[in-house]
Design goal:
Radius of gyration of chain B: 23 Å
Family (chain A): Belongs to the glycerophosphoryl diester phosphodiesterase family.
Order of helices and strands of chain B: HEHEEEEHHEHHHEHEHHEHEEHEHEHH
Strand content of chain A: 5-15%
Radius of gyration of chain A: 22 Å
Structural class of chain A: alpha/beta
Distance between the termini of chain A: 70 Å
Pfam families (chain A): GDPD (PF03009)
Order of helices and strands of chain A: HEHEEEEHEHEHHHEHEHHEHEEHEHEH
Largest sheet of chain A: 6 strands, mixed
Transmembrane segments (chain A): 6-25
Helix content of chain B: 25-40%
Strand content of chain B: 5-15%
Number of helices of chain A: 14
Oligomer: heterodimer
Catalytic activity (chain A): a sn-glycero-3-phosphodiester + H2O = an alcohol + sn-glycerol 3-phosphate + H(+)
Shape of chain A: globular
Enzyme class (chain A): hydrolase
Shape of chain B: globular
Chain lengths: 367, 397
């Protein structure tokens, strides 16, 4: 009757073997898939209309509210940790000014040709950054969470998506790569773009747009710097999006003008590397006296679509100060216009919940 | 060709003169037969265009009202005051300063006055000091600087009759929701012949255009109407003149009634609601008194809606505005979330909104007319409110 002596160790080994064999962050087996029949709801810095931007809470809220993708800006700390943060300086959205131990860290650097002064992310180790607390950027938004949340890493951001109960995509940006590569050096000689891709690969992100693997873990990689995108094209076939700022701005790496990078010949070149563009709304439709006029349209969307490129404009915000009078102070009228008239393929919004409402409520009409 | 030219021109002129003289001074009634007009919807809470679509166009102008009708309003709303010569006009403020160009009219520079208005010394250009002809020289401006200014100076003040004709001329049945505004002040400053008061002239005007019938009667459905006022004695007075439905407006907690000097707490008590329900079909409270607010966050709701519903009183709160500066943080800067909360959680029966189009969108997208269960749901919850009232009366009795 030695079966206990055999069975128990067998069970123990199986359990241990099972636990060790289980991947660290394996998504739940059956999750509601990403919707792909209507324009993407891209939660710009999470639901930062309600919660301080790029915090776990803001991203979780966005997932709850129905976002298709959660979006983030990736920068690097002094010790090369990739983190989620939009500004190069900590001044506007953290309490760094209240930390006496960092008082002497203020610096002035050239950022894309402009002299900027502040507490730069690249001058703090990640451990130091974790001491800071994030606050709501806009004074007219809810201030009640100021000081409650901290900065998060790229990996923590990824885990929010992977742990969601349904498939939620990520939309990280290779942000200010010229500046980051100037200030941060990695010991293995790798650059910012390499470390960015390493993080994605570590969590199993792969596959071209709409492939089976991509649909399991959707991702768009965005950047204002075309050379960063062409560089990583050698490292991954994940879909990439070229961000395009308003006309006076030139690309930070190639110093090209708006007109050059939106020309037919440029689109012919870049569409081998990217699946879409992410222009500012004003780059598509400028406004005069707070009115949009279709006659001032730059024709950018039609041109992009003709080259097989998706268009994901930024940024949609509910507050009336961001709305032109055409929309009658109503953010849903703005969604209606951009989705149904301009026919964009995705929208970066600070208010994932509102966009989700609009899409859900009007979907029966077949829009 | 030149045959009768000389005779023709005088004939043409005469015809024009006759035609112009014969034309009624109000807009012609709708060319669509009344029977064929889309009726008022009564299956979901009323979309009440507060001063017209004044989110887009200067308030209480013909253009603002026409825009509201185009955007789907169930009712167009207005405040009725009087000119010096007793003509009833659509205008909200007791003074012309904020929303007209009166300050630019040198001929009126000497008309500035100071009067006591509900216990407050108020200085400005008062409509009661201008004849209608003079008021018609003014042009209306958008009240809020953060709204579209492009129509400033284009539109004039309209009369009560012009307002009514806009509703009657609409391609579908559109109700009117006029207010007997500042009746104490008006009756102090304006006198009508035959000893008539402001309230008499108000009802006369409505009767002239055939407004009659109790709430939901056949007559009422053809020409829907709510008469609103902050002054209970005005409502009680006109209940002898008309059975058209009336709404008792309730101001902020610190403001007593202008005619009876009663406090908010008195006029929202069970006892008072039991009294006033004999005269009105509903109340129109300021929304921040129904659900109080602290640090721009909602607090637990009061029981005012339940107590009103238990007495079969409708609740039409004011005022809903799209701008985030008016939205409490619970709504995430989203006016549609505010509509959702008030219609589906609080369960009110109508909303005064500056943005008719937005409310119409919300209602169409989430409760289109074909789904007729809206009013039935609220009937069920009203029944529960009534049962609650009976139980508490039994407990306390």
């Amino acid at each position: 009757m030695n079966w206990i002596g055999i069975i128990v160790p067998f069970i123990a080994v199986s359990v241990i073997g099972g636990c060790v064999g289980r991947p660290l962050l394996h998504p739940a087996p059956i999750r509601k898939p990403l919707q792909t029949i209507r324009p993407y709801n891209i939660a710009h810095r999470g639901s930062n209309g309600e919660l301080p931007e790029e915090t776990l809470a803001a991203y979780r809220r966005a997932v709850q509210e129905g976002a298709d993708f959660i979006e983030s800006d990736i920068l690097a700390s002094k010790d090369g940790v990739l983190l989620c943060f939009h500004d190069l300086t900590l001044d506007n959205t953290t309490d760094v000014a209240n930390h006496k131990q960092f008082a002497h860290r203020k610096r002035s650097y050239q950022v894309q040709g402009v002299n900027s002064t502040g507490w730069f992310v690249v001058d703090f180790t990640f451990e130091e950054l974790k001491l800071l607390r994030v606050k709501q950027r806009f004074g007219f938004r809810d201030q009640q969470y100021n000081g409650k949340f901290s900065l998060i890493t790229f990996e923590e951001f990824i885990s929010v998506a992977l742990h969601a109960k349904r498939v939620v995509g990520i939309y990280p940006e290779i942000k200010n790569p010229v500046f980051i590569n100037q200030h941060v050096k990695w010991s293995d000689g790798k650059k910012f773009e390499d470390k960015f891709m390493e993080a994605l690969k570590k969590y199993g992100y792969k596959g071209s747009y709409m492939s089976k693997e991509w649909l399991k873990q959707p991702v768009f990689i965005q950047s204002f710097a075309p050379t960063s995108l062409t560089y990583i094209a050698n490292l991954t076939d994940l879909p990439k999006v070229l961000l395009i700022a308003d006309p006076p701005t030139r690309t930070e790496d190639t110093n090209q003008s708006f007109f050059e990078i939106t020309s037919d010949s440029y689109f012919n070149f870049i569409n081998k590397y990217v699946v879409g563009i992410g222009p500012s709304k004003a780059a598509i439709l400028p406004s005069i006296d707070n009115h949009l006029s279709e006659t001032s349209s730059t024709g950018l969307v039609a041109k992009a679509h003709a080259h097989g490129l998706q268009v994901h404009p930024y940024t949609f915000q509910n507050e009336y100060l961001f709305l032109t009078f055409n929309f009658k102070q109503d953010p849903y009228e703005e969604y209606d216009f951009w989705i149904n008239k301009i026919e964009v393929d995705g929208l970066f919004t600070d208010f994932a919940g509102s966009l989700h409402n609009f899409q859900e409520w009007t979907s029966e009409k077949g829009n | 060709m030149a045959m009768n030219f000389r005779g023709f021109v005088p004939f043409l002129c005469l015809s024009l003169v006759v035609a112009c003289a014969a034309r009624p001074f109000y807009l012609l009634p709708s060319k669509i037969a009344t029977q064929n007009r889309q009726p008022l919807q009564t299956s979901r809470p009323y979309n009440i265009a507060h001063r017209g679509s004044n989110g887009e166009i200067p308030e209480a102008t013909a253009a603002a009202y026409m825009r509201a009708i185009a955007e789907g309003a169930d009712f167009i709303e207005t405040d009725i005051l009087s000119s010096k010569d007793g003509i009833l006009i659509c205008f909200h403020d007791v003074t012309l300063d904020e929303t007209t160009d009166v300050a630019d009219h040198k001929e009126f520079a000497d008309r500035k006055r100071t009067y006591d208005v509900q216990g407050v010394e108020t200085t400005g250009f008062f409509p009661v000091d201008f004849t209608l002809e003079e008021l018609k020289k003014l042009r209306v401006n958008q009240r809020y600087k953060f709204r579209d200014q492009q129509y400033n100076g284009m539109f004039s003040i309209i009369t009560f009759e012009e307002f009514i004709s806009i509703a009657l001329d609409a391609p579908r049945v559109v109700g009117i929701y006029p207010e007997i505004k500042n009746p104490v002040l008006i009756n102090q400053h304006v006198k009508w012949p035959n000893g008539k008061r402001f309230e008499d002239k108000f009802v006369e005007t409505l009767e002239k255009y055939g407004y009659k019938g109790s709430y939901m009667s056949k007559d009422w459905l053809e020409k829907p109407l709510f008469i609103q006022s902050f002054a209970p004695t005005s409502l009680v007075y006109i209940s002898n003149l008309t059975d058209s439905p009336k709404i008792f407006l309730i101001d902020d907690v610190t403001i007593p009634t202008q005619d009876t000097n009663q406090s908010y707490w008195e006029i929202t008590s069970d006892k008072y609601l039991d009294f006033i329900k004999e005269y009105v079909v509903g109340i129109g409270p300021w929304k921040d008194t129904v659900v109080p607010v602290k640090d721009n966050h909602l607090q637990p709701p009061t029981d005012l809606v339940a107590r009103a519903h238990a007495r079969d009183l409708q609740v039409h709160p004011y005022t809903y505005r799209d701008e985030n500066s008016f939205l409490h943080f619970d709504f995430h800067q989203d006016p549609y979330q505010e509509y959702d909360y008030w219609l589906n959680e609080i369960g009110v029966d109508g909303l005064f909104t500056d943005f008719t189009g937005s409310l119409h969108n919300f209602q169409e997208w989430t409760s289109p007319i074909s789904q007729n269960d809206g009013k039935n749901k609220s009937k069920a919850s009203r029944l529960l409110d009534k049962i609650g009232l009976l139980i508490s009366a039994y407990k306390n009795g």
